Structures are given as C-alpha cells and as structure tokens.
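Try this one yourself first.
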C-alpha cells in the first residue's frame, strides 16, 4: 500500500512539475508589453505604450529611433508572418516545408521578382531618408531575432533564423504586388474557351467591359489547353500560407456631404483571411513626425495611415498589367525564338531551390523580350509552344519603397500625388482626405495601350510584334478625381470612366454591386457622420441580387412548381437583399445561383475550368447579366445530343435542384435555412491545417453575416456541399473623422498579435464579426491611462 502511495505521490509531483514547466514555457513565449529593454543603435530613450488592444504608441526623439523600436515590437508579434512573406517571392518555402512547397517555389523563382528587386536596390540612394529609416526598421527586427523569444512556429517547423535585409522588404512588396493580378487566372482560361468553342462564347462574358456600367467618375478639374496556366497559378495562390489581395472599398466624404463640414475617410481593403491577419497597427510620434499606420509584415512604411492632417488608404485598381505572349521557336533551333526583326536567343538563368530533407532542385528559366517563359516551371504546358509573361512590376523600374515613404511623409497634396505616381505596379486606387477639406482619388500604375483590336484578355501573338505594347500613358492621364463637384470620391474595384479620348482601360473589374450600392447611398444624403459611415461600412445588402432574383423568377416555369417550391420562391420574392445571420433568402439565392452557373457553364468548360471560372471577376460579372440574354449560346447543354436547352429549362432545373439540395442539407423546415448556419468564417494559421494544432493556432469558426459583393464583402466560393466557407473580407475597417480625429475607429479581423499566447491574438475577432469598432488613439493622456509601458534604453 505504501509503495502505491509513493508511486501516486511521484506521479502527482511529476504532473505538477510538468504543468509548472509548461506554464513557464508559455509565459516565456508571450510578447513583452512592459518593463525595460536595451537596444543597440538607439540614440535616446524611447517609450512604447501598448494600449488595451496591443497597438504600440511609440514616442521617440527621432524617427530613426522610432523605426528601430517599431522593427523590434513588430517582430515580437509577427516574426513568423515576416518569415513566410520574405520566402515566397525568391522561392524559399521548400527550405522549411519540404517538397510540398516546391511547385510554389518553382513558379515564384521563375517569374523574376527576386531579380527585379536586386536591380531596384542597386539603384537606391543610400543617403535617402527612405533607405536609412528602412535600415533602422530592419535593425530593430534583427535585434529581436538575436535577443527575443523564438516563436513557437520556428521551433515546430525547424526554422533557422537569418537576418532580415532590404532584399526581403522588396521581395515582400513583390509578392503582394503579384497577388493583386487577375490576368494570370483569366487570360489563359478565356483563350481556351475561344479556341474550343469560338468567339461567340465570349460575348456573354462581358470581357469588353460592357457589364461595367457603374463607373468611377473622373474629375480632372476640379489548341493547347492554355487554362493549365490558370489552374496552376490559382492552385498556388489558394494554397499560399500568406493571403492574396482581392478587392476593397473606400470612400471619402467631402465637407459639403458631412454633418460637421469636415472630411470623413473610410477604407476596408479586402484580403484573404489568415492568422495572423494582414495588418499590424502602430502609432509613431516624434517631434518632427506623427503617423498612425497599418503595416505589412516586414515592411517599414504603412500602406494605410492617418494623422491629424491627412488620411490615406487603397483599393485594388484591377487594371490589366500582365500580358501573356505565345512565342514561336526557330524551326531548327529551339534556343532561339522569333521577333519582328528576326530570331533572338533566349536568355537563360538557373536558380537553385533548397528543399528540406531532400536534394536541391535546380530550375532553368528561359526569357524572351516579353518576359520569362512559363512552360519551364509549370506543369501541363507543352514545351513546344512557349508562353511568356510580361508583367509591369518586373518590366518597369520599382520605386515602391520611395512611394510608400512619400505617402507616409507627404506635407501636401502635391507631395502625395508625386508619391502615387512612383507606383508602376500593382495598380492601386489610392484614396485621400485631409483636415483642410480636400478629397482625392488617384489610380496608380504604369498604364499602356496596344493596337486597336488587340484583346488583352487573351493569349497574344509574341512573334510579329503586332500585339506588343504601343504606347505608355503619362501619370497625368491616369484616372483620378480631386474635390469633385458631387462631393465625394469612392472605389469598389469597378471600372473608371474612359481616359484619353474614350479609351476604357482594360482590366479585371469586379461586378457593379458594391459600387452601385456605395454611390447610391452616398448620393442620397449630405449629413454624414462617423456613426452613419460605420453602419454603411458594415452594410450587408445587395440591390443587384434583388434584381437578379426578379430576372430569375420572370423566366422560371411556374406551372410545374410544387406547393413547397412556391413557398421557397415566396421567401425570395419578399427578400430585400440582406445577408444577415437570421436571413433565409440568401441561403436559397446562393444555392440557386450556383446551380444556375453550374448547369449553364460546366458542360462546355469541364469541372476544373468551371471551378476556375467561379473564382475570377468574369465569373462574378456574368451572374447579373447573362440571364437577361434569352439567346445566349451557353444555355444549351452540349452533353444532351438530342435536345437544345432553353434559358427557362436551365433556370427551372436549377431552382428545383436547389430546393431538393437544401432540404437534404438543412431539413424540410424552411425557417431553419438561416444564412448564419451555412456562411461561416475561420481564420486559419498555416499550422492550423494540422488537426492537433487547429485549436491552438486557428481563430473561429464563427457564423458570419455578409456575402459576396455586398459592402461587407465576406466572400466565399461555391461548392456542392452548400457550406460557404468565408475565404476573406475586410482586412481592416477604418473610419477617420477629421471633426474628431483623436477618436477615429478601426477594427482587425482577429487581433494585433501573431503570437498564440498573447491576449491580443484574437481579442478583436468577435467585435469584428459583429460590426463593432475600437479607437485609433492619438491623445497621449488617454493612451497613457489605458496602456502598459515598455521602455527601450540605448545599449552600450
């Protein structure tokens, strides 16, 4: 008996010791929010106040010291995220994840971001403020790497720490620039459709811009399966451990449209969800400069920011800045390709990709005068028909660092516009408002045009030069509006009005749903305040969806409907377009829309291409428009040889199938078909894919309001399951009111910290899901009262 008691006592002691050790380990891993630390290269003592949501407010005597402190605190919260981001563009994920990341690495190593970064860095002015402050920021990151706690992800995956350099900064900007582009998904797919079925099948897809009827108003005064490219790139971006930029909303209300007579700025960039979330908020205060900004991991200057003088943000322009060219090899020598002036040698470069627990992989990349040949590092593309990619980001000079510095340090609108003009790619709608009453929108990007008749949404002819770029526009020709007479500027990834004598700039613009809703709401009143704007930015209503329902119902075969189907239809008929948690209609609507699309397009495209189609702007644009065309060639199901289906046949079958599917999924009680039960969101950490680690690293799941293409754009992909897993949405919701700038509002999808043991890892998630906000504090007295204090002292 005594032996058993002793054994039990030893076991209890062991459990207590293990528990204490685990607690101590977890406590050790937490970020440091108070106390004192010493930093090298710090000129004077610098104080960081972490407010009640973990936002650092950095008070320093110089911007150099502030940037060093920023690098340190940013790294202690987001070092794992920084590590992943810097590895994507140069093709270095396989070093830590092994062969599972090899396809991704081959692609990004091949398209030339790393080489373009090196060229840009070689031309940098090492005495410029942007360069020196970047180095201070990197110094702060590296000091944390040397002296701070190693993130648990580094330990689990086995990451060897390496210093951050300015090359990493440029590679991060390069990857984020590529994630904007839609051409890589769209052009090969559309070319494939044209080659298989003819140009008639493209007419209903709106690729000439005919669906983009709600346009942003400009105010200058006051045979091979090309879809293999699409499939490969889409799969890689979808599986990337860091999310892609997708869409966005922004509007800036001028003095004559606000209750206070002051500018109100609103912005919510749409980005794929992940954990940690995209942005890290920080507030820097020095005697010369103050800025509250949202920072990408590993980058020194914010892309979204404000202070007491001005605010800025962005949406995706969605312009076409990638062209694919079909090259032609010399018949007797595959080392040469045809140009308008004869044959030229391919440029050749080799890159080595290190793979964890395996041998190195060496890739050979050929390039033409247009850019790298995709066939050499993508599967399913035949070698005999080389496809080259011409991308503005790697073709034009990269000045993104100087641009980001200029945006964040502008003294007036002239300075700000100059900074916007430096951005060649990606195309951005840069939004602006200031305390003096100015509002502005400028489309950034090096814009160009081809010969008339060249459709840049298709694979182009690279051999004869006729499809080459013929002219570049000066920045002053870019779409823009400054202090327009209608009193506001806005962007929702919709197409701008024509430039340069009626030229509609080609792009991959999203449907007019959000644009139409935003402009309609803004036009309707002139007494806007912060509270009203906050309701608008969380708006879950689609006016376009209501019109789509009317059009669907009008062509439905009502005579064959059962009593139950009529009940379902009545729910839709009374729908106001809302997508709130308790709504029934959006559950019915999205099932019907998915089955209409599937029954209409999948027979021609095949399943894989159809799934691609659903995820690109063309697939979204088509919903509200193609159903109006009774004579569309797409209605006929080519799989049924002895029958030609009509619009009514397809729409009616889709509705009947939708009701059956919803009954099987959710039961016979229609009142239980609530949107919140099928539309959910979970913020996934790369390691959360491992079932045992999901609870530690992922945030959620939550039942989610919102939907595709409402202002609160919590978007998802369609599937047969009938569960709508939110892929992304507003990466932040920001409202800056210059009538009360110290109490402006923000919210992040999860939290400030990327450390799962921090209380700020997920402390905003429920607020975000409910449409709530928190303050972006500028008042020092209030900041001190609600914050912990971390003091950095000069070392040595």
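Now uncover the answer:
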């Amino acid at each position: 008996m005594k032996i058993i008691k002793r054994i039990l006592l030893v076991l209890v002691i062991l459990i207590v010791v293990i528990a204490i050790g685990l607690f101590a380990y977890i406590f050790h891993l937490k970020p440091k929010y108070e106390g004192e630390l010493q930093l090298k290269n710090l000129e004077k003592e610098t104080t960081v106040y972490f407010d009640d949501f973990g936002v650092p407010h950095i008070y320093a005597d110089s911007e150099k010291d502030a940037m060093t402190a920023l690098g340190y605190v940013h790294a202690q919260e987001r070092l794992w995220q920084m590590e992943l981001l810097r590895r994507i563009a140069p093709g270095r994920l396989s070093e830590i994840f092994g062969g599972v990341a090899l396809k991704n690495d081959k692609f990004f190593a091949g398209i030339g971001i790393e080489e373009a970064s090196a060229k840009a860095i070689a031309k940098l002015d090492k005495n410029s403020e942007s360069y020196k402050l970047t180095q201070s920021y990197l110094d702060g990151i590296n000091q944390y790497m040397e002296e701070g706690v190693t993130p648990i992800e580094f330990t689990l995956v086995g990451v060897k720490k390496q210093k951050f350099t300015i090359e990493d900064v440029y590679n991060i900007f390069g990857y984020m620039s590529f994630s904007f582009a839609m051409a890589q998904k769209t052009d090969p797919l559309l070319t494939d459709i044209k080659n298989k079925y003819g140009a008639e099948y493209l007419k209903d897809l709106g690729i000439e811009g005919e669906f983009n009827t709600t346009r942003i108003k400009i105010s200058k005064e006051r045979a091979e399966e090309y879809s293999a490219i699409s499939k490969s790139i889409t799969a890689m971006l979808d599986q990337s451990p860091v999310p892609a930029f997708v869409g966005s909303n922004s509007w800036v209300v001028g003095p004559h449209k606000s209750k206070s007579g002051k500018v109100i700025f609103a912005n919510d960039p749409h980005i794929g969800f992940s954990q940690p979330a995209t942005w890290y908020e920080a507030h820097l205060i020095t005697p010369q400069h103050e800025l509250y900004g949202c920072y990408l991991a590993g980058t020194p200057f914010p892309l979204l920011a404000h202070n007491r003088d001005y605010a800025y943000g962005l949406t995706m322009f969605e312009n076409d800045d990638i062209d694919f060219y079909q090259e032609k090899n010399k018949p007797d020598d595959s080392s040469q390709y045809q140009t308008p002036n004869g044959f030229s040698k391919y440029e050749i470069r080799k890159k080595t990709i290190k793979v964890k627990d395996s041998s190195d992989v060496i890739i050979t990349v050929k390039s033409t005068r247009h850019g790298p040949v995709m066939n050499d590092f993508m599967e399913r593309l035949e070698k005999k028909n080389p496809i080259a990619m011409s991308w503005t980001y790697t073709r034009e000079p990269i000045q993104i660092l100087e641009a980001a510095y200029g945006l964040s340090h502008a003294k007036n609108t002239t300075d700000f516009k100059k900074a916007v003009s430096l951005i060649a790619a990606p195309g951005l709608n840069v939004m602006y408002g200031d305390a003096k009453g100015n509002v502005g929108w400028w489309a950034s990007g090096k814009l160009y045009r081809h010969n008339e008749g060249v459709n840049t949404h298709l694979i182009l002819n690279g051999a004869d030069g006729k499809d080459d770029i013929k002219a570049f526009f000066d920045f002053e020709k870019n779409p823009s509006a400054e202090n327009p007479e209608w009193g506001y500027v806005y962007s929702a990834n919709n197409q701008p009005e024509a430039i340069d004598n009626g030229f509609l700039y080609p792009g991959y613009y999203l449907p007019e749903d959000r644009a139409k809703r935003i402009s309609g709401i803004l036009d309707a009143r002139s007494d806007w305040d912060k509270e009203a704007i906050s309701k608008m930015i969380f708006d879950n209503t689609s006016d376009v969806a209501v019109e789509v329902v009317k059009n669907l119902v009008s062509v439905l075969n009502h005579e064959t409907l059962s009593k139950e189907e009529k009940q379902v239809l009545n729910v839709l008929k009374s729908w106001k377009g809302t997508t709130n948690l308790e709504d029934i209609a959006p559950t019915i609507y999205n099932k019907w829309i998915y089955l209409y699309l599937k029954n209409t397009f999948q027979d021609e495209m095949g399943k894989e291409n159809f799934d691609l189609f659903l995820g690109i702007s063309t697939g979204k644009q088509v919903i509200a428009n193609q159903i109006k065309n009774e004579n569309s060639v797409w209605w006929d199901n080519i799989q049924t040889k002895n029958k030609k289906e009509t619009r009514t046949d397809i729409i009616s079958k889709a509705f009947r199938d939708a009701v059956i599917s919803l009954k099987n999924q959710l039961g016979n009680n229609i009142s239980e078909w609530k949107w919140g039960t099928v539309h959910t969101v979970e913020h996934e950490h790369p390691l959360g894919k491992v079932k045992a680690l999901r609870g530690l690293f992922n945030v959620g799941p939550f039942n989610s309001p919102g939907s595709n293409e409402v202002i609160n754009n919590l978007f998802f992909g369609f599937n047969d399951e009938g569960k709508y897993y939110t892929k992304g949405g507003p990466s932040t919701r920001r409202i800056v009111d210059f009538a009360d700038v110290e109490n402006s509002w923000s919210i992040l999808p999860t939290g400030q910290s990327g450390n799962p043991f921090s209380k700020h890892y997920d402390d905003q998630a429920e607020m975000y899901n409910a449409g709530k906000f928190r303050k972006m504090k500028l008042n020092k007295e209030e900041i001190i009262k609600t914050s912990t204090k971390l003091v950095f002292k000069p070392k040595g």
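Discussion: The mean pLDDT is 91. The chain is about 35% helix and 20% strand.
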